[in-house]
Design brief:
421 residues; alpha/beta; seven-stranded mixed sheet; 42% helix
Length: 421
Amino acid sequence: MGGVDTRQLMAGVLTVTMFVMLANMIKKDHLDPLQVELAVLPTVHYDASKASEQSVVTLTQVSDWPWKEDGLGLKPCWAKPALVDADQSKGFVTFSLINGPEYHVSQIADALVVARYLRATLVLPDVRGSKPGDKRKFQDIYNVEKFVKSLNGVVKVVKQQPADLSARNLAVLRIPNRVSEEHIAEKVEPVFRTNRNIRLATYFPSVNMRKSEQKSNVDSVACLGMFGTLKLQPEVQEVVESMVERLRTLSRKSDGQFIAVDLRVDILKKRRCKENGVSGSKSCYSPQEVADFLRKTGFGKDTAIYLTQSRWDSRLDALRGLFPNTYTKESIMPVDKKGKFLNSDASEFEKVFDFYICSTSDVFVPAISGLFYANAAGKRIASGKTQILVPSNIPDMSAPAEHFITPYVTKKNHLAYSCFC
C-alpha cells in the first residue's frame, strides 16, 4: 500500500472546512437579529403560520422598483409682510382649530388673513375634536414659540384670551376657506368695527386647493399661514419620527422606502365608492382596489405600507393578502407612547400622526379624495416629495406608476406652486 498523498489530504481538509463554514453561515442567516426583531413585532389579524416567512428582511438593492427620488425642496416665493405698529387696532380675532391637521392649516391661513386685514390681535387658538368636550390646548399638539415667532411683524399674537373677552361680547362670523379681501371688507370688517372682537368659523364650500391665476394682496399672508406657522411640539414630533423610522426599518428590501395610504374603512362605508359614469373616476377606493393598483404599478409584495386606519379591520385583509407588510399605527408606535396617544380620547393625535406620516412617506396614495389629500399634497410639494399616486382601476396587467401622478403635480396647479418656486 502506498503512502498518503499530502495534497489529497489537504484538499480533503479544505473541503470539510468549507462545508462547516457554509453550515454556520446558513445557521446565522436563520438567526439574523433583524429577522428576530421583526418576528416579534405585534400585528393584528395575521396568519401566524406565515409570519416568519413574511417578516424576513434582507439588505438588498432593488433597481426595478417604481420608486422615484425626491426632488429638491422648493423655496418660499412670498415676502413676509411687515406690520406698522401705528396701524394696530384694539380688537381681537379668536377661533378654534377643528377636524384635524388637514383643516388646521387652512383655518390658520384664513384667520391670519382676516387678522392682518383688520390689523387685529390674533388670539392663540385651542384645538377641538369631533366629539363634544374634546378640547385641547394649542401647545398639546403644536409648538407655540415657533408659531408666535413665525408671525412676528405680521400680526400681533397673544397666548391667552383677555379676561374681559367672553362669548357674550364676541360676534361669531362664518367665513369661506381661502377668504378674499372683498368678503372681509363686505361681511367681516363692518361687524368688527362695531364689536371690536370677533370669533371666526371657517367653512369649506368645496375642496379647492388649486392655485389662482389672479394675484391678491393676501397671497403672501395665506402662504405663510399654510406653510410657515404650524410645527409639532417636540414630543409629538418625536413620535412621528420614531414611527417613520420603524417603517423604514421594515422596508429594507425597498431600500428603506415605504408607502402611506389614506384609507379608512368608516369613510369607505359612508361613500360607497361608486364610479362616476361620465369620467370613470371615483371618490374612494376599496382595500382590494388599492392592492390591485399597487401590484399593477410595480410595487412588490415586500413593500411596507402605512394605513391611516386607526385599528386593524378585517375589511383590510385583502390588502394585506397581497402586501403582508401593511401596518396601522398601533403596530409601529413606540409601546411607551400608546397609552397617551392611542386611547379613546386621543383621536386628534391620531389624525396628526396620519397627516405628517403621509406628508413624509416616499409615496403617498390617497384612496379617499378630499381635504386630507389636498393639503397633504401641498405639504409634500413644498418639500419636493411629489410621488403622489392617485389610484385607478387598471384594466391591463400592468401600467407605469408615473401615469398616475396627481394632476396637482403634473399640471402644477396646486396652491403650493403659488407659494413656492
